[in-house]
Amino acid sequence: MKLPIASSAQVRAYAGRLFRVHRAPLSKIAVLHTLAAIAGLTGPWLMGRLVDAVADGTTTGYINTLIAIGAGAVLAQTVLIRFAQRSSMVFGEKVFAELREEFIETVTSLPLSTVERAGTGDLVARTTNDVNRLQHAVRFGVPRIIVAVVTVTLTVVASLIMSPLVAVAMFVGVPTMLMIVRWYLRRATPAYQRESAAYAALNGTITESVEGARTVDALRLGTRRMGRVNADLREAFEAEKVTLNLRTALFPGVDLAFVLAPVAVLLWGGYLASNGYVSLGAVTTIVLYTYQVTGPVWELIFWVDEIQVATTSLARIVGVQLVDTDRVERPGTPQDEDIAARDLTYAYREGHNVLHGIDLDLTAGERLAVVGPSGAGKSTLGRMLAGIHPPTGGTVRVGGVPLIDLPLEKLRGHVALVTQEHHVFVGTVADNLRLADANADEEALRRALEAVDAWGWVAALPDGLGTEVGSGGFALTPAQAQQIALARLVLLDPHTLVLDEATSLLDPRAARHLERSLNGVLAGRTVVAIAHRLHTAHDADRVAVVDGGRITEIGPHDELVAAGGDYAALWHSWQHE
Ligand code: ADP
Predict the structure, then answer these.
(1) Atom 16 of ligand 1, nearest CA residue
(2) What is the CATH number of domain 14-320?
(3) Whose CA is nearest to atom 25 of ligand 1?
(4) How far is the CA of 340 from the centre of ligand 1 (A)?
(5) Which parts of the sequence belong to the ABC transporter domain (predicted)?
(6) At a CB cut-off of 8 Å and minimum separation 6, what does 58 contact?
(7) What is the gyration radius of the CA atoms in the chain, in angstroms?
(8) pTM for the whole structure
(9) Domain locations in the chain?
């Protein structure tokens, strides 16, 4: 199941909303560009006047005046373009920044279950490739299109005012151009998509072969991998050939239209002028206008192509916003810190329950160890208890309020899931900690680090809390990164922690050191420990045995051992290892 893609109607509605929201700056840009374009129209107009004046006989003074006006117009145009460009670039950046922020907001609040089901690849492609493609169109395309549309419209209007009779000849190239551009656009999108897909496949094959070089060697897959690379190259070559052919038809085709127009104006205008219908100056002006308009028309053609690509990306980006949330906030304040699961079921795939009606009560402050064979559903239960996924059936409540009714920020103040995966974000140590509590002051950060036994090394860093860490910054050891993650938990201060040790990747030495830090975090909280080593279970207040998606035994360690059930068998076999 992929993430949704917005329909064209939804994309149009979205783009329309963007334009409405930004009506004021857009109008300002349009006005500035209009003024600049009008200044740009002065040159050819003066040239026409000059031609007429010379033909009729004139004075040096008059010519000097015209030249002065022309110089003034060029100066005015330069200044206007400077401000118009500036405001359109600022506008493009601003809109793009807003889009990006909105997108990040959406992505970070996506239901985890949806992302997991769709695979992270899809989301990563949308946050990178699609955002990049859109970025180009929004930052450069939108401003350039405004300029081109304004310039083309004004130039055509000016020519028509000058002399409609001559100006009609400007349109001679239009049918040819429309035909060629339509022909091109119909074929361009699939052709360029095929090209991108071909290069993506080629990249994939080469990266895989290089990363798996040892496997390739060991299994003697060399020839087969070479064959795949060659096949991918052939496909990329074929795809490239198609787009190249498209371009070799488009460029001369459009150029032909561009040559046809001024030639037609010249011939038709020449005929009209020699018969005295129009002045030579008017013809000169319109020929120059016809030349002047080709630049912006080219630009429009170029951007129409780019906008098509960007629209596909926008549909994929807007699509992410269409994902239904998996929780709706409802009012309700937990009365206490007890957690209760009732008749809990969960299915990753519809109809395949991995938890079958679990009932569980956790009293505030108690420690529960969850044990059982791998695949029994321990991690799934842990994620339910931490409110990561809404249950398929039944409820998990904290102080009487279902976990999924709580807004995420509030939920994390009650229960948090701790895995041994951790991530250091690019930024300072303080930034990393403030992810948990944006308003924490330095004193609070220091206390949190002290609680996890990490203040010593943080204080010794070159800039202390202000040291840049994460990719490109000061390199932290995995254990230090884990301590930062634990300090975040202290700041978050949930009363219940679900500890999933399933992904324990740390070496035992680091693990022992971390145990101290961890104990600092666990003190005074309710703890559900999904245990893979039984000594954790031994220390807990109660032990729950999960098997086949059910709690089969639950009680204090000693009682379970005395009862002689599954847990007793597990415990004895572990002790004799
Ligand atoms: P445990 O933690 O006890 O090893 P899990 O809760 O990870 O067990 O898994 C319980 C069952 O759910 C297993 O059959 C597992 O294959 C399945 N399962 C776990 N995660 C997923 C997932 N993301 N998608 C589909 N099935 C899953």
Answers:
(1) 375
(2) 1.20.1560.10
(3) 348
(4) 22
(5) 339-573
(6) none
(7) 35
(8) 0.69
(9) 14-320, 339-575
